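hiii, so i know i said id send this last week but things got crazy w the move. better late than never?? heres the sequnce for the chain we talked about at the cafe, plus the structure i predicted for it. fair warning i was half asleep when i ran it
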Amino acid sequence: MSTPARLPDAASLETVMAGLDPASADTDMVPALNAAFPGFAFDLAPIDDDYWRDTRSILQPDGTRLGELRPWMTAEIAKDGGDIKAVWSRLKETDLQITEWRGSSAFVSAPTGPGAADYLQIALGREIEWRAGPIVNPDYRPWGEQELLDPSWPRTHQLPDSDRLAGPVYRLLDGAGGAMIHVRSFLDRCGRIEREKREAKRPELERRVIREVGPGGTRETPFLDAIPDYFDCAA
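okay and structure toks below
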């Protein structure tokens, strides 16, 4: 393996993922990363931890999107003066549907050196947009506005592949800053912070004594004499 020229950055990673064809994204991810960042040998590990994004759309039968669910539904509730039953009764007779993005995590990693902590780890989300179901649950009347704005009932159903609308697509999780970590650098930073915390306590510890009471009387030992390597523990 050649020496990596540079560590990946969030913007470059997002560019690579944006260039993947959803039809082959699962197989193209690692080769695309290896090509974009010479010197790394990436590997992809999917994680079974399903999640749902809070982004939903309103869909007509012909595939036309009317907009995002929350602002659209807020306007519909306002039309009926906040009467949830009236909104539900009206919408359940329509053929409108909602979409949602379902995802699971994946981690990309690549060694950066010979040590156990010498590797890069990138947290990704693998996400697919689905046609989730009717705009409202036709069998159960919602009791509050939140059930219309943030419906959870479609998530109990396993969706057929014919309801897939887009994806899979990959994106960085935890924001641009938290999705990528170089483990060696992370551990070094943690060690430095711990040392700084301990150093800040030095004046206090220099005054601290350990008092022992025994048959021969009371003996006091300076704390740092008893634990001389206290400030080396975080090194």
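btw Residues 201-232 form one domain. thought thatd interest u
miss u guys!!
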